[in-house]
Every structure is written in C-alpha cells, then in structure tokens.
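[User] At your convenience, examine this fold.
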Amino acid sequence: MDRFYVGSEVGKLRKVLLHRPELSLKHLTPSNCASLLFDDVLRIEQAGKEHDAFQKVLTDNGVEVFLLTKLLAETLSYDNAKKWLLDHQINNYRFGESLAGEVRSYLMSLDNLTLAKHLTGGLTVAEMDRSCSSMTLAMMGPTDFVIEPIPNHLFTRDTSCWIYGGVSMNPMAKTARKRETVHMRAIYKFHPMFKNAEFLTYLGNEDISYDNATIEGGDVLVLGRGNVLVGMSERTTPQGVEQLTWSLLKTGQAQKVIALQLPRARSCMHLDTVFTHMDIDCFTYYPDIMRADTDCWELTLGKDESLVTTRVQDGFTKAIARALDVPELRLVPTGGDIFEAEREQWNDANNVLTIRPGVVVTYERNVNTIRNMEEAGITVLTIPGEELGRGRGGARCMSCPLLRDDI
C-alpha cells in the first residue's frame, strides 16, 4: 500500500507531485493572462525545458516525481471517476442546457489523456468544432473558451497540501483556480494509488460553499514536531486558517498552529514567497515583509474542543523557535542591496524547495540570495527559471510533497 505523509518542510523529500505546463500556456495570451492570474505570457517550449530540468534535479536526488496530467488521465480511465469529475464541471448552470450536453458529449468522445489536457489546459469553440441550438454558443467567437485554461495548475503546492497524515484539498480564493481543487479531489478519491491508501482529509472535500474560508498551500508550512505555520495573506483568510486548524487539532495530527498576518499584496501572495524553511533552525526571509512586529497568534485545542487563540507577545521568530525546540532561528535574508533584494524577492528568491536538511532547490537567477544561503552553510541546487519564473512562483510553489520525513 502506498504511503502519503508530510512530517516537516526539511526532512528528506521522497515523493512529490508536479505539473508540467503545456496546453494552458499555449492558451495564455496578453489579453487573457490577467484574468487567468498570470502576469505575463511564457515561451511554451522553454518553460517546458526548464520544468524538465526541475524534475531532473529532483529525480537525481532520489525524489520520486508524479505528474498531474498523467495521474488525471489515469483517474479518468475509471468510468465512475470520469462521471464524477464531469458532473462537477459540466452543468446547465454553467453552460446552459443545450451547450452543456454538447460539451459533455464532446469531452466523452476524447481519449483520457487528451481529456485531461483539455480539462487543465482549456478548450476553445474552434477546438471543440461542434454546433448546437445554444444562445451561449451563438454569442461566442472561435477563440472564446468553452473551458477556461488553468495555467496556475503549475503551482501544485496551492491546490492541495499534505500535513502530517492527511491532506487539505484547499478551497481556493480566486474563481480562476477553483477547478484545480476538483481535479485533485478526483485524483485523491479515485486513483488507485490514493484510493487504496490510508490518510485523513482536513478541508475542501465536500460539495459545499466554503464562503470566506479560503486557504492555499503556499501559505502552509509544516514545521514538524506537531506544529504548523500558516500565513494569512492575499489568498488565505483567518476563517480558512481556523477551519483547517480545528481539523488538524481535532484529529490529533497537529498540537499547535502558528498564524501570521501578512500584507494583502501581489508581491507576497503567499507566506512561502517571503519565508521558507531550509534547515531545522534555518529560514530564508524577505526583511521588508517579515518584520519583528509581524502580528502572530498561536492556536491550540481547548478542553471542550474549541479553538484557543493566543496572541504572541515576543515575536514570530521566538514562537517558531519554541515550536521547533531550538534556542533561536538562523535567518538568511534576501540578497543584495535594496533594489536587488526587491527584484530577487519578486523572482522567488525566498521560494525554495528543501529536499533534505540544508539542501534546497531554487532559481539560478537569484545570485545574491544564493550567495547568502551558501554563506550560511546551505547547499543550493539551481534550476533555470527565465520563463517559469515569470509565472510568479518558485520551486516550492511548483511542488506538492506527497511523502516527506519528520525531523
């Protein structure tokens, strides 16, 4: 039986889920990238090559890599899974009665790999090349999307995050990303690798509106030793943190959650864009955002299974040091002068993926921050990111650990 468990941010990484961008990038243009939550269009072939280099660094270091499109295609090979997934994405309310039937008929005619690619990469009216008596379809042009592409699937960290012995299938903040969670729910529910495994589900696996309780995995750091760190950011709300925390504490998978308040800004969209864990006592951070006066709370479970929220008075670094049982944290700042540091933070210098204690993967372009890390004793494995980096996400954003050791 396959095992899925993430006991820390820095223990040895053994299994990871990635998504190699293809069709979704082909469908990305200057006129639609903003609505699809991208800042720019990417060179498709080059982005693919850079992603392949990322995969190679991981496999060369003993990490087993799983690709989302392949897992989704394998999931769709089961009739009940295909029905469940299409039921959750194709309905009369979204398309209108006539068009919904036509879209579903077309998707059912595709082989499973092609279907998986269109579900993640989008489908235009011209690509579907079908007609029906639909006002909705009549009002659309050939290049309009019947199914919107989801280029942010590249950032597998956000959609679902494994925390100790379970997974949160995250209610996403932005409409453009909500279908990502449907895909992950289908994979975890029906793919035999997960269907036959034992794990808990914390949040997001019900057909309900989670309203203001949104959370994304880039804001969730599994500190280890029964502790979790969560940032409240542009995408993660206090309501989402409380719901996830209650589930973690009630199931006994965590004993304490530390919550940080972050600015609601694009430049620090998630906690892991300004603060990540590199070794048991060592973090990289962006000083302009992660200041000593950052508001911080500790959440624990009361005797009546209610949340107990305590404001931290002596600063978030001391709260994290206590959780990790270390005297103090070693903090490695974003490198360079004030201009270089701001530029490197924007290019994900602080968004590193730790593959074992003291060994991280990051974009090669962030030379000043890499120098700071190496001077602090961190081994840095670099990957190209001239195209991938323009999607505003680094190695941590692009990876969803499935199996990682405790510390």
About this structure: The chain has two domains: 5-68+151-404, 71-147. The mean pLDDT is 92. The two ends are 23 Å apart (CA to CA).
